[in-house]
Structures are given as structure tokens and as C-alpha cells.
């Protein structure tokens, strides 16, 4: 009895001492350097768990600590320490990276949550938005002013990664990619200096940040152009197996729609629901004709209606697979013909049947048609897309599963199915040279040249100038 309680005490005290000793010296040094606007959290703390969490569980890792910087100056202090000690680290915005290690680390994890302001400036028709926000929060904050920015199309997506990689939005047909609407970045450079990067202040770095992710430092704030926002029309429609051919025909025919306020995503899914359609018109009512084919198809469920933009995006939830293993991949296509859509449907069913027994949760192919003019909106150009003369449009392939033992199998299947669709498009006569892969959808081992193409040499030159010590090379992601 006596011995037993003594042993328990001993175990507890050595456990406590061990836990304290285990606190990483770099984390302790960061804690001692940052201001009271920032904090460091250790394993076991709910804010640590929140910090390292990701939309895809496979994109998360156990880090030594989570740093939540509250000021750009503190981000600078943290980067300086990490650079001097060559400590691997990660920067997380909304945590929606579909690739492992892009915003996670076994080193020091930086979560940007505290950069959460949205400031609308009516005089310049711009909004400053913090790098720790998700788009739902930005849309809700701008709603009262009757304006909006170009951001994510479904609920939960982070601001930072989407902007730093390009950004396809529900307004892309009207105004281009999100990068085309950025007017300034507040950037903490790898040497710790806080700068505002604009076209006038540093045209090369401004260009490089439009697609270059975390290669040039940590962005704390973006300034985006705003556009008038009325009520919108749209919602989600689920269609069952009997009507897939109608959906395919309507999706192919949508290529003839020229009204830039109309957009859609057609997702072929394995199992229920076979089809999910996201239909959007950026106005209270679409002119007759545009969506009639879709609306004539018998649906299992539909919540189409006139609503606020915030409500529209909230109505496209993505948490049914949250926390699962996951991977995205993509190619860019010139055209979604009926025959290509049938190849995509066949791939959905083929891989769905094959992978579902292997802890599969969701096998989905999202067709994202855009107008041929979407790359014509930016006269300044950008690191991504590096080539704007071709009207390429992405497909988003998404596999979700639960057992990590199958990771490699899913990654292989993803590469195989992507190639099948690529080859089918080529066999149809699509000239896919210079159709670049969207970095926010590409699987982690995609060669940089097929993403960044002709931008790569210039990106590498700018990278060496801005980050001669390659501090940002200590963080994961697409690395120049
Ligand atoms: C459900 C879902 C829906 C999506 N919908 C769309 C869509 O409609 N349109 C579209 O274009 N894309 C979409 N995407 C892709 C999305 O753009 C990327 O996943 C994007 O990288 C997410 O940004 P994040 O901040 O949430 O990601 P994170 O995982 O936090 O970061 C992604 C990358 O950006 C870097 N990064 C993050 N913050 C900073 C910073 N402050 N400074 C420097 N580097 C930073 C990270 O280090 C990491 O490499 C979607 C993804 C998901 C999972
Ligand atoms: C991610 O990082 C871990 C080490 O932390 C490594 O074992 C793994 O291979 C990496 N995954 C990818 C896809 O790069
Ligand atoms: C369906 O896809 C599988 C896998 O890519 C392929 O082997 C098969 O031939 C395809 N079937 C049809 C009818 O295209």
C-alpha cells in the first residue's frame, strides 16, 4: 500500500518532469522571444491539437509545438530563430492542403489563426484580409458592405493557400483568378523583415507571390480588389444513377454558355450520390436557358434558390470526409466533351469499386468548366498560371479513405487514373502542351515543370535573391 502510493507519486513526478524536459529548446526560445500577442502550445493542449489539425488527416503531423504568432514582427522573430537553428517548420493557413507535409511538420508548427482581420476600404475598393482566415469568414464580413472578393467555392477553405496558389472562384469567369485581384501582400521575409509588396514596390516579388506559396516568406495579410455583390442564385442538386447521362449531356452543353455570371461544378461520385451538382449564378435569378437542362433532370435533393453569397458557400459543406486520409490530383483540359465525361464516369466507377473495400470513403471526380477568357483578366501576369494563351480548365480528383496502410495504393491509383484521363483527352485530339497543372490540386510528387512551366527559371532567380539562406526550404510544399 505504502510502496504502491510511493511508486505512483514517483511515476507521476518523473512523468511531469519528463513532460517539461521534453519541451523543445527551440520552442522555449521562441516563447521567450515573442511578444504577449503570441503564444506557444505543447502536445496535450487543446490549442496545440487545433493548431496541427488539417482538413485531410493525412496532411497532419505531430510537431514539437504550435506557435500562434499575433503580429508580423513576431513572425519575423520566429523565422529568424528557425533560420539560425535550421529547424524544420510548417506554416498553416486554413489547413486544407491535400498533400502531406505542405503545412505540417515534425518540427515547429506555425498556425496563422490570429491574423483574422477583414478591413474593407470603400475608397480604393479593396479589402485587407488576414492570412489566418477561411473564406466563409471573409464573405460574412464583407456581406454588410454589398461587396465581395474572389475566393473558395465551398465551405471551410483557407484564404492563404488558395490565394498563394492561384484561386478558382465562383467569380473567375467574370474577373479571373484570385491572384489576378491581389494588389498587395504584407510579407515577413525569410530574414525577418516585414514588408508590403506591391507591383510598384517590388514587381518581381509581387509576380512571384502570385502562385509561389511559401517560398518567399510568410504572408500575414492580403489586399484584394472587391466587387459588388448582390444576392445570388444557386445551390446543390443531387442526382441518382438513372439520370447520369442527362447530367453528362447538360455538362458538355454548358460549354456554349457565355454569360460569365454562370458557373458550375459537376462531381461524379462513386456510390451515393452518384452526381452532385453545384450550380451558381452571380445574381438573384439566372436568365432563362442557362441552367434549364440541369433543372429538368429529376433530382434526389435540391436546395437551389436565391440567397446571400455567404449562405451559398455554407450550403456546400465538405466536412463529411474531414479528418480522413485524402489526396487530390488534377490535370488541365481544353474541353469537356461527352466522350471525355464518360471516361471520367467510368474511372469513377472503376476506382470506386476497386478502392472502396480498402477503407474507401469517397471517390470523386469534379469537373470544373470555365470560360475560355478566364486567363485574360490580368495584364501583369503571375507566376501561376505561367501561360495564359490557352483556355485550360481543371479537373479535381479526390480520394478519401481511412486506413493509412493503404496510402501508397491510393496515391498510385490517383496517378494512374489521372493518366487515363490525360491520355483519353489527347486521343480525342486535345493539344495539352502548355496546359499547366493547378498547384493547389496537384499530387505531391508532380514535377515542378508541369505546374510552373516557363515561370520556373524566374521563380528560382527571385527565390535566391529573397531567401539566400533557403530558410523557407525548411518548410514543405512546392519548392523552387
Ligand atoms: C474542400 C476543399 C475545397 C477547395 N476548393 C477550392 C476552390 O474552390 N478553388 C481553389 O482554387 N482551390 C480550392 N481548394 C484547394 C485550396 O486552394 C488549397 O487546398 C489551398 O492550399 C488551401 O489553403 P489553406 O490555407 O487552407 O491551406 P494550408 O494547408 O494551410 O496551406 C497550403 C500551403 O500554403 C502555404 N501557406 C499557408 N499560409 C501561408 C502564409 N501565410 N504564408 C506563406 N505560405 C502559406 C502552406 O505552407 C502550404 O504549403 C479546395 C481544397 C479543399 C480541401
Ligand atoms: C512527410 O514527412 C515525413 C517525415 O516527417 C516523411 O516520412 C514522409 O515521407 C513525407 N511524405 C511525403 C509525401 O513527402
Ligand atoms: C473503364 O476504366 C478501366 C480502368 O481505367 C478500363 O480498364 C476499362 O477499359 C474502362 N471501360 C470502358 C468501357 O471504357
TrEMBL record:
Domain of life according to the entry: Eukaryota
Keyword Coiled coil: no
FAD-binding PCMH-type domain sequence ranges: 59-229
Leader sequence segment: 1-18
Keywords: FAD, Flavoprotein, Oxidoreductase, Signal
GO MF annotations, alphabetized: FAD binding; oxidoreductase activity
Gene3D superfamilies assigned to the protein according to its UniProt record, in alphabetical order: 3.30.465.10, 3.40.462.20, Uridine Diphospho-n-acetylenolpyruvylglucosamine Reductase, domain 2
Official protein name in the record: FAD-binding PCMH-type domain-containing protein
Amino acid at each position: 500500500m505504502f510502496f504502491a502510493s510511493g511508486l505512483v507519486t514517483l511515476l507521476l513526478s518523473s512523468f511531469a518532469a519528463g513532460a517539461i524536459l521534453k519541451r523543445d529548446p527551440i520552442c522555449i526560445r521562441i516563447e521567450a522571444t515573442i511578444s504577449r500577442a503570441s503564444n506557444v502550445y505543447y502536445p496535450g493542449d487543446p490549442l496545440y491539437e487545433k493548431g496541427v489539425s488539417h482538413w485531410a488527416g493525412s496532411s497532419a503531423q505531430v510537431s514539437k509545438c504550435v506557435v500562434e504568432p499575433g503580429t508580423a514582427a513576431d513572425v519575423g522573430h520566429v523565422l529568424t530563430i528557425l533560420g539560425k537553428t535550421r529547424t524544420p517548420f510548417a506554416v498553416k493557413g486554413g489547413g486544407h492542403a491535400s498533400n502531406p507535409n505542405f503545412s505540417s511538420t515534425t518540427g515547429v508548427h506555425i498556425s496563422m489563426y490570429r491574423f483574422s482581420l477583414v478591413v474593407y476600404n470603400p475608397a480604393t475598393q479593396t479589402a485587407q484580409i488576414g492570412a489566418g482566415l477561411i473564406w466563409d469568414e471573409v464573405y460574412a464580413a464583407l456581406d454588410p458592405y454589398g461587396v465581395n472578393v474572389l475566393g473558395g467555392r465551398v465551405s471551410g477553405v483557407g484564404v492563404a493557400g488558395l490565394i498563394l496558389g492561384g484561386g478558382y472562384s465562383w467569380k473567375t469567369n467574370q474577373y479571373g483568378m484570385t491572384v489576378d485581384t491581389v494588389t498587395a501582400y504584407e510579407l515577413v521575409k525569410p530574414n525577418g523583415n516585414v514588408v508590403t509588396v506591391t507591383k510598384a514596390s517590388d514587381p518581381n516579388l509581387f509576380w512571384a507571390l502570385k502562385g509561389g506559396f511559401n517560398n518567399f516568406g510568410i504572408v500575414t495579410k492580403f489586399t484584394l480588389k472587391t466587387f459588388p455583390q448582390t444576392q445570388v442564385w444557386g445551390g446543390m442538386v443531387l442526382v441518382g444513377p438513372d439520370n447520369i447521362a442527362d447530367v453528362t449531356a447538360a455538362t458538355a452543353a454548358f460549354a456554349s454558355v457565355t454569360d460569365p455570371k454562370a458557373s458550375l461544378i459537376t462531381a461524379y461520385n462513386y456510390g451515393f450520390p452518384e452526381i452532385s451538382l453545384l450550380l451558381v449564378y452571380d445574381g438573384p435569378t439566372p436568365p432563362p436557358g442557362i441552367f434549364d437542362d440541369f433543372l429538368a433532370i429529376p433530382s434526389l435533393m435540391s436546395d437551389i434558390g436565391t440567397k446571400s453569397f455567404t449562405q451559398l458557400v455554407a450550403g456546400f459543406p465538405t466536412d463529411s470526409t474531414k479528418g480522413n486520409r485524402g489526396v487530390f490530383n488534377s490535370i488541365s483540359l481544353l474541353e469537356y466533351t461527352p466522350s471525355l465525361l464518360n471516361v471520367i464516369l467510368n474511372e469513377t466507377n472503376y476506382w470506386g469499386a476497386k478502392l472502396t473495400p480498402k477503407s474507401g470513403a469517397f471517390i470523386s471526380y469534379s469537373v470544373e468548366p470555365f470560360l475560355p477568357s478566364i486567363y485574360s483578366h490580368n495584364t501583369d501576369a503571375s507566376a501561376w498560371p505561367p501561360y495564359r494563351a490557352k483556355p485550360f480548365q481543371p479537373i479535381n480528383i479526390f480520394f478519401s479513405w481511412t486506413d493509412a496502410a493503404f496510402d501508397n495504393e491510393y496515391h498510385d491509383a490517383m496517378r494512374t487514373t489521372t493518366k487515363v484521363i490525360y491520355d483519353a483527352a489527347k486521343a480525342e485530339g486535345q493539344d495539352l502542351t502548355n496546359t499547366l497543372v493547378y498547384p493547389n490540386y496537384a499530387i505531391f510528387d508532380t514535377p515542378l515543370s508541369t505546374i510552373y512551366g516557363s515561370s520556373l527559371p524566374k521563380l528560382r532567380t527571385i527565390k535566391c535573391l529573397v531567401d539566400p539562406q533557403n530558410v523557407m526550404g525548411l518548410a514543405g510544399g512546392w519548392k523552387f
